[in-house]
Amino acid sequence: MQRFLITAGVVLLVAGLLWPWLARLPWGRLPGDIAIEREGFSFYFPLGTSVVVSVLLSLLLWWWRR
């Protein structure tokens, strides 16, 4: 558990430092993401992005456990 927390902290630190460049990536605008905008109301649900992130994390954790 300690190794996981340290790794997660390092990953968050690196992501925070790289955020100006990571924000320019097209994440969050993938096909399958639901965006509804009306007057006085906006709804956004990143379904496609969630699936991609889930698959990548699953593969990473599977690889890490081997």
Task: Report what the structure shows.
The protein is an alpha+beta fold. The protein is 59% helix and 15% strand. The chain contains 3 helices and 2 strands. The chain has a two-stranded antiparallel ribbon with strand order 1-2. Strand 1 (34-38) and strand 2 (41-45) form a beta hairpin. It is extended. The two termini are 17 Å apart. The chain crosses the membrane at residues 44-64. Keywords: Membrane, Transmembrane, Transmembrane helix.
Q: Short description, anyone?
A:
It is built from three helices and two strands, in the order H-H-E-E-H. The chain is α+β, with helices and mostly antiparallel strands and 66 residues long. It has one domain.
SSE topology sketch:
Elements: H1 2-17, H2 19-22, E1 34-38, E2 41-45, H3 47-65
Antiparallel strand pairs: 1-2
Quaternary form: single chain
Radius of gyration: 16 Å
Alpha-beta content class: alpha+beta
Helix tally?
3
Low-confidence runs of at least 5 consecutive residues = none
Shape: extended
Strand order of the largest sheet: 1-2
Q: In percent, how helical is the residue content?
A: 55-70%
Main sheet characteristics: 2 strands, antiparallel
**How many structural domains in the coordinates?**
1
Pfam family, one: DUF2905
Keywords: Membrane, Transmembrane, Transmembrane helix
Transmembrane segments: 44-64
Organism: Tepidimonas taiwanensis
